[in-house]
Design goal:
This protein is 93% helix and 0% strand. The protein is rod-shaped and about 55 Å long. The N and C termini lie far apart (52 Å). It is built from 2 helices and no strands. With 45 residues, the chain is mainly alpha-helical.
Length: 45
């Protein structure tokens, strides 16, 4: 596990992979938030 964390945070490809994972999770949460916001607005009128 220590080797994996070292590779993830110190190599270029590891940082790119980490950024990609965080970006995908963030975009998923943003899309979920926007959809819920629109659904709630439609329910109100």
């Amino acid at each position: 596990m220590d080797v994996l964390m070292k590779l993830l945070f110190t190599t270029d490809i590891g940082l790119l992979s980490l950024f990609t994972i965080v970006f995908l999770i963030g975009m998923g949460l943003f899309i979920w938030w926007r959809i819920n916001k629109n659904i709630n607005e439609e329910k109100r009128g």
